[in-house]
Amino acid sequence: MTKPHIAVVGAGIVGICSAYFLNKSGFKVTLIDRNEPGTMTSYGHACTFADYASVPVNSPELFKEIPSMLLKSDGPLAVDFFHVIKNLSWAYKFLQNCTANKVEHISSSLSNLLNNASVSYDEIFSDVNVSNYIKNEEALYLYQNVNEFLKAKKTNIIREKNGVQIRILSKKEILEMEPNLAPVFYNGQLFVGSRHTTNPQEISNKIFESFINNGGIFHKKSVKNIFPDDEVVKLNYEEATHKFDKVVVCAGAWSKVLTKTFGDNFPLDTERGYHVLFDNYNLINRPIGWSQSGFYLVQLEEGLRAAGTVEIAGLKKPENKKRTKMIEMQARKLLPQLKDVKSTWLGFRPTLPDSLPVIGQSAKYKNIFYGFGHQHIGWTLGAVTGKVINSLCNDRVPNINIEPFSPKRFY
Ligand SMILES: Cc1cc2nc3c(=O)[nH]c(=O)nc-3n(C[C@H](O)[C@H](O)[C@H](O)COP(=O)(O)OP(=O)(O)OC[C@H]3O[C@@H](n4cnc5c(N)ncnc54)[C@H](O)[C@@H]3O)c2cc1C
């Protein structure tokens, strides 16, 4: 019997891990991306395997905080008002998901995935050796003043309820752990047991290589259209039509463009984020988050990366130099030893208004599956999403409750 042929569209970390698990379980798998695997959002992020990050950006306090956040040029949030006006319904739905009850629901739903995130990666890592690119020094978050710390204490209650272990540290304890930091912060907290990567591109490359070595196929092409019908799904790329038994859409922030072609509409937008890469090595031991501006400092093989912040401005606008300059200045405040900037980067977090991903089978087409919308934690959730997609394509019920991620919530 010929193996069913599955196309995975999008070779970010979610698509690569999905292709990896599907191929392992015996499907013929073609992974398609218009770029090299792992080179878009999954390349430039803050590198934390953030199993602890169950609390979404949505929060009851956001209503009060947005005006002051927008007035601060060194704050975590920037907004292009023209984009927001054009996409008012996304902003409105996002704010509707800021009540205490919704935040509890989002956090506990994300925790179902996050609590299975490490173990799912470890399944891949037992087969694909990436130990050179993983460090177990736990992520630290710094608070610039007592108010910021008190806000974090409130969200810690939700995290702890979902099983996250946190250690509060004094300024003195932090300076002993990270002696190169300038003492410009109030205190901080450590996410116990967390780990990070020093080279996300190499991790994507290694998982991708394993997929190819096991018979997986890669096409570097742009998918123009998807045409599902009862028996097969047709994809248009290379100016030709290709037939598959099933298609998995993992195209990150661009997924909506594809799903629209066959009438599945999702309110997907992007939370843009930046990184600034400095020509420094061995300054810090662990990812260090900074509450004032919403980014992490992390030591990578290619230099020291300051990555994060949120900008609501859509997929098309070019890099906003004011944001990278701000990240550079704030990073230098924390680490005055920073040398020259080597490069800057803009990435596109795929975000739905309820900060939950879409993982599941299309309600309209039984041979279309989705894995996108992982907002701030897509790097962390790559492997677990791949495992769930594999269960669904095998007609098995996943061992995680995926009801909250159902595409049906938008129909
Ligand atoms: C500044 C920043 C910091 C972050 N920090 C962290 C962190 O520390 N930890 C964490 O867990 N997450 C983090 N994230 C989030 C994380 O990076 C993303 O959620 C994740 O990378 C999304 O992966 P993805 O595979 O869905 O999308 P992507 O990596 O963007 O991949 C989607 C792929 O689809 C392809 N594609 C799109 N349309 C088509 C088409 N029509 N045809 C063919 N190919 C197509 C694209 O070329 C792309 O390669 C951060 C994000 C940012 C921006």
The tally of strands reads 21
Helix content: 25-40%
Within the CATH hierarchy, at the fold level, what is the topology?
Answer: FAD/NAD(P)-binding domain
Overall radius of gyration: 21 Å
Number of domains: 1
Shape: globular
Structural class: alpha/beta
Q: Briefly, what CATH class?
A: Alpha Beta
Q: Please tally the helical runs, counting DSSP H or I stretches of 4 or more residues.
A: 12
Termini gap: 36 Å
Bound ligands, named by name, code or SMILES: flavin-adenine dinucleotide
Largest sheet: 9 strands, mixed
Would you tell me the overall average pLDDT?
96
Unreliably modeled segments:
none
Question: How much strand content do the residues show?
Answer: 25-35%
CATH superfamily: FAD/NAD(P)-binding domain
CATH architecture: 3-Layer(bba) Sandwich
Describe the structure.
With 411 residues, this protein is α/β, with parallel strands linked by helices. The chain has one domain (5-410): FAD/NAD(P)-binding domain, CATH 3.50.50.60. Helix content is 32%, strand content 25%. The protein contains twelve helices and 21 strands. Strands 4, 6, 7, 8, 15, 16, 17, 18 and 19 form a nine-stranded mixed sheet that branches. Strands 10-2-1-14-21-20 form a six-stranded mixed sheet. β17 and β18 (303-312) form a beta hairpin. α1 (13-24) packs parallel to α9 (200-213), α1 (13-24) runs parallel beside α12 and α6 (117-125) packs across α12. The mean pLDDT is 96. Flavin-adenine dinucleotide binds next to α1, β15, β18, β19 and α12.
